[in-house]
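All the exercises in this workshop are built on plain-text protein records. Sequence and backbone structure share a record, each on its own labelled line. The structure tokens are whole numbers drawn from a learned vocabulary of backbone shapes. The record below serves as our worked example for the rest of this section.
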Amino acid sequence: MNTDDCILSAFSGEARVNRKYNSFAKIAAGEGYDHVAKLFRATSAAEEIHAHRLLSIGGYLGTTAENIEAGIIAELRASNKSYPKFITIAENEDRQEAVVTFTHAMKAEAAHAVLYREAADAVKGGKDFDAEIIYLCPVCGNIEIDRTPERCPICGIPGSSFKAVE
């Protein structure tokens, strides 16, 4: 194991606990533990700082154009390789909730790759991505540009449930 391996391992851990602590904060807040929730959010933010610094020192951050291309590769890998395998495993174990979650994620990742390709084309032309408002489905992670659909095309929740991303 070398330093680069350590950086990747540390990043993976920091990124995982960042998301986990963020989820813990939501549970604590929902149970009325506002200060515990705040502590989890603060720790989550600290882990995000660590993860970002690790990406930086590891040389994993590039220009916007390079980062978009890396995003396309990651989204396509997830939608074409990882999630189909996960779905098969979950189906074989009769874990329907996992099948649904993996299927939603797979479809959302494929849609993300399309949006990243559009953004990459804009950046290559020296322009920003053409989007006034970007909406996020809180159930499946689908992203819609400038308007919400009547129902999410991936998970079916009402479009009114989508959240605008700042």
